[in-house]
Structure to design on (415 residues):
């Protein structure tokens, strides 16, 4: 909802910025701008990055007044870069709302334990040289006995997902595409400020190196439902609202859900959302369909159920798209569904093709080859979840060939 000035942690200390939202003043060529600061490890020292496109005065109820207009500082040549600006702290504070750390998967035991869990369990990264020497560095052998009788998915379709951390740039295109495709309501800044959100996908980020080091690299990790074959959410639902279909998709039966939120409590990835407030038309429009304008009726995707408040929501692997192709295949008597003919919204919107979806029972499918790749690994394998989502470890090719350690640095500039 707002733009913020990105600065390095070192510059933040010099300017007296102790926490996110502390405001700074930027002056150049007789023009000035006051904006909230956002210290970001890895940002170049001695510089400030300010996003453009905010501060509109006539942009509707959502965008009017969001952020500040930074075009006042843009030089006449339109380059978007200025030199010699004066920056100072103001002593003021502006409340920024961000979902970045709402559900970060990290240990609370301590820094050493936190770093170990990120490196060994969550984000796996290596240089090209390290990968050549040890191609299976991402693999981790874990022996875990199943709690329930396991089901075989060898017959029919076996849908799966793969995310390549080497190509993900953390743009959040998948998040926006998922929201538009699946009728996910916009929660708003005030609710996010108290820790609430509705997105079915989030993009976690971790830093390589400490927050005070000059050369800090960022690793992005999209996090969505893993559609675990041994799903812990299903084991605690008292009404079987969340269950598996015969193709291995962890589905939600919304009209069964009674909102206990046990499933969210038992999900190790925290990718389930409780619809605590939002009905078909949002909290401020308790109207019938007949009262909606034609434009308002076009907001929702007609292929996706619009949930009532009081139920749990989560990723469905765009089951509406899967079923649409399956129905077409049946009507047109296809011998098989060709690989790549089904693409969920997140994969369709990904600009770097980091997200891949397909049938794991097809030996020639792209998803099958990615799941069998040496870089493929499962998150938290000791839980024996049998996730249908595998990540491909991130590979880098640094000029000096150095290998950086990986640790979780959810940075707090006041620390």
């Amino acid at each position: 909802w707002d733009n913020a000035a990105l600065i390095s942690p070192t510059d933040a200390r010099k300017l007296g910025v102790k926490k996110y939202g502390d405001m700074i003043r930027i002056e150049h060529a007789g023009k000035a701008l006051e904006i909230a600061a956002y210290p970001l490890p890895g940002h170049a020292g001695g510089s400030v990055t300010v996003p453009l496109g905010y501060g509109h005065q006539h942009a509707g109820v959502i965008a009017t007044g969001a952020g500040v207009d930074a075009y006042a500082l843009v030089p006449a040549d339109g380059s978007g870069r200025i030199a010699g600006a004066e920056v100072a702290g103001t002593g003021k504070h502006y409340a920024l709302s961000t979902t970045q750390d709402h559900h970060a998967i990290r240990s609370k035991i301590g820094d050493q334990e936190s770093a170990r869990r990120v490196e060994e369990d969550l984000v796996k990264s290596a240089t090209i040289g390290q990968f050549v020497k040890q191609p299976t560095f991402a693999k981790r052998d874990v022996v875990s006995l199943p709690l329930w009788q396991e089901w075989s998915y060898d017959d029919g379709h076996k849908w799966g997902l793969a995310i390549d951390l080497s190509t993900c740039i953390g743009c959040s295109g998948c998040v926006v595409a998922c929201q538009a495709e699946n009728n996910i309501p916009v929660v708003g800044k005030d609710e996010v400020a108290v820790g609430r959100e509705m997105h079915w996908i989030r993009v976690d980020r971790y830093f390589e190196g400490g927050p005070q080091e000059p050369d800090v690299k960022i690793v992005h990790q999209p996090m969505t439902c893993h559609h675990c074959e041994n799903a812990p959410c299903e084991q605690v639902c008292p009404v079987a609202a969340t269950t598996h279909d015969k193709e291995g998709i962890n589905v939600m039966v919304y009209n069964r859900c009674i909102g206990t939120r046990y499933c969210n409590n038992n999900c190790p990835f925290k990718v389930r959302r409780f619809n605590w407030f939002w009905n078909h038309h949002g909290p401020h429009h308790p109207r019938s369909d007949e009262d909606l304008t034609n434009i308002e009726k076009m907001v929702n995707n007609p292929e996706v159920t619009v949930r009532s408040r009081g139920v749990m929501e989560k990723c469905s692997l765009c089951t509406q798209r899967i079923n649409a192709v399956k129905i077409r295949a049946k009507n047109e008597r296809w011998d098989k569904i060709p690989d790549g003919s089904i693409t969920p919204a997140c994969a369709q919107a990904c600009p770097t093709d980091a997200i891949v979806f397909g049938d794991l029972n097809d030996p020639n499918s792209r998803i099958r080859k990615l799941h069998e790749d040496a870089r493929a690994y499962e998150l938290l394998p000791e839980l024996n979840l049998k996730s249908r989502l595998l990540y491909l470890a991130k590979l880098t090719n640094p000029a000096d060939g150095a290998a950086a350690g990986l640790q979780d640095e959810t940075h707090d500039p006041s620390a």
